[in-house]
């Protein structure tokens, strides 16, 4: 029972991270119809950037964090203004799979390459923000970094939910993803939302990278794995339902922890992907896969 | 004709269109359309399918780029700026409705208010949102339903209600009865008539002039993308 409880806690912690990345991917896809395959790389830049500025360059931690987040935001803004604007808004706008995958996929490789030059290839992590032994409640153990991750997930996820559900701007965001012509009729600037959410999710990803990295450590290649899991969880919501993507992310995290703990640490991931694939085959429509294909 | 349009413009036309052209790539959809709509008019833009009627509305409201001039209540409209047009009183109810299928009926209508506010509270309490809701009591039971699951007629009503929520002085309605059954089409026209009675200037694009002309006191005929010269005064 104790083992189950601790595995559950670990699973929910990683699940919360997957969930947040899945939410970031699906919210942006809703607005822009582009899958952000670089979202994990922003997390990696957050973690390694803070580590580099703090440990190597010797800046105070708050300055290192703020600088890193500003750089990520500025980079995302410039990327949107130059690349995505030419791709989606220009006189020769592109449609289909090129826009959906290519540009963010390329961006992911680009960020990885730059990170390799700047941060090297070793495993690093941002310094722990909340130091001390893990907290215990009876026989259950809570990592402090894990609690921070959960706290951030609840706050940021909650803010997203309130924004989409209860504000006119949030509804406009949904509308611009559903029907861009209909959105323009009521004066919604679809491009502005695309930029806003892209920059916003890049910063959120970087924050999660910073908070989470003390648990797992990051290399310049860590981003791709995170993007992939976020992408996978988002797929379970047809890429358009952030709420479902969140649940899917939590589910994948818990499943991963349970399989690792009870089945086999080596083959846990293999079994997990087999289960995930089986779920898709069994209930494609209910899991949102048909709507993803049908647009 | 241009002179007459100028005179009408001076007398306070709601909408003055001068030498409007709209092209898609090399295809010219509208060529030099010139007409005016006075405040309080109900104006029908009629003509066969594919002759540029919708493109006139798209150009006038700024949904597509245009050449030529458009004045809304005397102010020169910015090219390609839908928001500007909406803020100055001209709102489009587009062909094929262009709703947001996965949002609720109420949210679809509410988003019309986005043209003039960012506050959901102000939008909900506004007179224009209230007017839109009152005009279609039959939508009341469906407010929480997703707009994509409504019938065609109901969706058309939602599209018109969304246009009204934008608080327009001129409502431009594109093919409101496309694909609707006769009884439903009649209901839509009753609503348009009521909107006109309440003082909103109306522009209706129709392929079938019969219905439009029961409501409209003015018509603009479009043939092969040319509209200006065939403006016929009061019908």
List the main descriptive attributes of the protein structure presented here.
heterodimer; A: about 300 residues; mainly alpha; ABC transporter involved in vitamin B12 uptake, BtuC; 2 strands; about 0% strand; B: about 240 residues; alpha/beta; Rossmann fold; six-stranded mixed β-sheet; 9 helices; disordered N terminus
3D structure, described in words:
- Chain A is an all-alpha fold.
- Chain A has one domain: Orthogonal Bundle (ABC transporter involved in vitamin B12 uptake, BtuC).
- Chain A has twelve helices and two strands.
- Chain A has helices spanning 2-32, 39-56, 61-89, 97-119, 144-166, 168-178, 180-185, 190-216, 222-235, 242-263, 268-282, 289-294, and strands spanning 135-137, 140-142.
- Chain A has a two-stranded antiparallel ribbon with strand order 1-2.
- The longest helix of chain A has 31 residues, at 2-32.
- The termini of chain A are far apart.
- Chain B is of the alpha/beta class.
- Chain B has one domain: Rossmann fold, CATH 3.40.50.
- Helices cover 35% and strands 26% of the residues of chain B.
- Chain B contains nine helices and ten strands.
- Chain B has helices at residues 2-10, 53-61, 82-87, 105-110, 120-125, 127-135, 152-165, 182-197, 209-215; strands at residues 13-24, 27-38, 42-46, 67-72, 75-76, 90-93, 170-174, 201-206, 218-221, 231-234.
- In chain B, the strands form two sheets. In chain B, strands 6-7-8-3-9-10 form a six-stranded mixed beta sheet, with helices on both faces. Chain B has a four-stranded antiparallel beta sheet with strand order 2-1-4-5, with helices on both faces.
- In chain B, β4 (67-72) and β5 (75-76) form a beta hairpin.
- The interface between A and B is medium-sized, with 20 and 30 residues.
């Amino acid at each position: 029972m104790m083992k189950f409880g601790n595995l559950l806690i670990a699973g929910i912690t990683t699940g919360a991270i997957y969930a947040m990345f899945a939410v970031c991917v699906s919210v942006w896809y809703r607005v822009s119809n582009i899958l952000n395959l670089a979202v994990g790389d922003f997390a990696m830049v957050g973690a390694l950037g803070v580590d580099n500025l703090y440990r190597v360059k010797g800046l105070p931690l708050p300055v290192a964090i703020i600088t890193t987040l500003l750089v990520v935001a500025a980079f995302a803004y410039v990327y949107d203004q130059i690349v995505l604007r030419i791709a989606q808004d220009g006189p020769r706008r592109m449609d289909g799979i090129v826009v959906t995958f290519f540009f963010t996929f390329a961006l992911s490789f680009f960020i990885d390459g730059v990170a390799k030059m700047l941060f090297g290839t070793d495993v690093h992590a941002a310094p722990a923000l909340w130091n001390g032994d893990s907290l215990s409640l009876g026989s259950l153990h809570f990592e402090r970094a894990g609690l921070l991750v959960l706290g951030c997930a609840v706050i940021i996820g909650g803010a997203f939910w309130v924004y989409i559900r209860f504000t006119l701007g949030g509804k406009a965001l949904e509308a611009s993803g559903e029907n861009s012509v209909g959105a323009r009729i009521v004066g919604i600037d679809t491009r502005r939302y695309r930029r806003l959410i892209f920059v916003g999710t890049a910063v959120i990803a970087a924050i999660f990278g910073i908070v989470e990295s003390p648990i797992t450590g990051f290399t310049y290649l860590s981003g791709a794995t995170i993007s992939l899991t976020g992408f996978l969880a988002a797929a379970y919501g047809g890429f358009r339902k952030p709420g479902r993507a969140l649940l899917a992310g939590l589910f994948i995290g818990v499943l991963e922890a349970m399989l690792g703990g009870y089945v086999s640490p080596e083959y846990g991931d293999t079994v997990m992907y087999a289960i995930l694939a089986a779920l898709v085959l069994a209930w494609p429509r209910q899991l949102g896969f048909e709507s993803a294909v049908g647009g | 004709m241009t002179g007459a349009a100028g005179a009408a413009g001076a007398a306070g036309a709601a909408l003055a269109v001068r030498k409007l052209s709209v092209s898609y790539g090399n295809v010219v959809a509208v060529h030099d359309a010139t007409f005016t709509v006075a405040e309080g008019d109900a104006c029908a833009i009629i003509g066969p399918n594919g002759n540029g009627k919708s493109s006139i509305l798209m150009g006038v409201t700024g949904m597509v780029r245009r050449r030529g001039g458009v004045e809304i209540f005397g102010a020169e409209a910015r090219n390609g700026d839908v928001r500007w047009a909406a803020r100055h009183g001209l709102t489009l109810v587009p062909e094929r409705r262009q709703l947001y299928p996965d949002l609720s009926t109420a949210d679809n209508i509410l988003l019309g208010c986005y043209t003039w506010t960012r506050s959901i509270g102000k939008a909900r309490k506004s007179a224009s949102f209230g007017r839109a809701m009152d005009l279609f009591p039959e939508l009341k039971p469906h407010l929480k339903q997703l707009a994509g699951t409504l019938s065609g007629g109901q969706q058309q009503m939602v599209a018109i209600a969304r246009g009204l929520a934008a608080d327009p002085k001129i409502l431009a309605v594109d093919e409101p009865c496309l694909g609707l059954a006769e009884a439903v089409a009649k209901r839509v026209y009753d609503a348009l008539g009521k909107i006109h009675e309440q003082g909103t200037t109306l522009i209706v694009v129709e392929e079938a002039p019969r219905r439009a002309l029961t409501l409209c006191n003015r018509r603009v005929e479009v043939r092969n993308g040319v509209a200006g010269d065939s403006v016929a005064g009061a019908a």
